Amino acid sequence: MVYHLLRTSDYHTMAPRQSEPAIRLGIDLGGTKIEIIALDEEHCALLRRRIPTPQGGYGVILRAIVDFVHQAERQLGDRCTIGIGTPGALSRKTGALKNSNSTCLNGMPLLDDLTRLLKRPVRIANDANCFALSEAVDGAARGASVVFGVIVGTGCGGGIVVDGRLLTGVNAIAGEWGHNPLPWLKDDELRGPECYCGKHGCIETFLSGPGMRRDHERVTGHRFQPATIARRAADGDAGCEATLQRYEERMARALAHVINILDPDVIVLGGGMSNIQRLYRNVPKIWGGYVFSDVVDTKLVAARHGDASGVRGAAWLW
To answer: ∠ at Cα 109 (103, 110), nearest 5°?
Structure first.
């Protein structure tokens, strides 16, 4: 079995080889939904569908993906290339999935099984990598030399694209921003919330949607979803405004750390938390206090393709 793993030097061209189908299927495998898109050579979506991620474990999810592909190809009347964005990454040692917050996938030979069941090569990449690739190809960071793509939703992930090349690194974890500790901790942040990865104080535990909800409940006693917190803050709720200010300051610190290491031209936000519009105004005002430079020209922008970006990036793996 040859694993189609993405290495740091890999470059995924934006046009299929002569022997490859012209239609690319992209699949976004999430904890709550599985989405599929078909892109033609002009970057146009020929179909886009989503279904709830089935419960019942790995085998049920595997079958749902295969059925989804077959249904799409029947409608398209064509055989397609298949790229899949997943939480986590493929282990270079075993070829199995690792680091997924959909824990039933960890340790499973997802690529091997899908290649066998679909009877063709399949390419798999981390969902945040797919998001970054999509936005670098024809999204909000098109034309930028160095792009850092961030998904802030139920979790926090990151992906890096340099000159059109998706970087994954020798350990297949390049861009794993969410499982670093929140930098420049304040006294009331020490140790931090427990993360599913087994550590405490990961960026994900502060900046994910559940992280904001927990922080607001800890301080105010009220259990609101992030969208409600943002709306109530805009209406003058002092407790919600304070929660958003804490969130913006933490995001600024976390992204300043990335800027100090990677120095990207553009940082693109995706995921549910990226819909909070004030982030794009307020976070760059704060991060300059933590970036080791006299000026910070890095741009913070919202994803052009919104919640379609990850699934589009999966298609662009071919």
So the answer is: 75
Count other Cβ atoms within 10 Å, centred on residue 281.
10
Least confident of 95-109, 204-218, 238-252: 95-109
In a domain, 292, yes or no: yes
Residue 148 lies in domain: 142-302
Q: What is the mean pLDDT of residues 225-233?
A: 97
The alpha carbon of residue 310 and the mean position of all alpha carbons in its chain are separated, in whole angstroms, by 7
- Residue 305 buriedness (CB in 10 A; 0-12 / 13-18 / 19+): buried
**Shared domain check, 293 and 151:** yes
Q: At residue 183, does pLDDT exceed 90? A: yes
Distance (Å, whole) CA 62 – CA 115: 11
261 in the same domain as 161:
yes
Residue 16 belongs to a domain: no
Q: What is the enclosing helix (H) or strand (E) of 247?
A: helix 238-262
Q: Which helix (H) or strand (E) holds 219?
A: helix 209-220
Q: Is residue 47 part of a domain?
A: yes
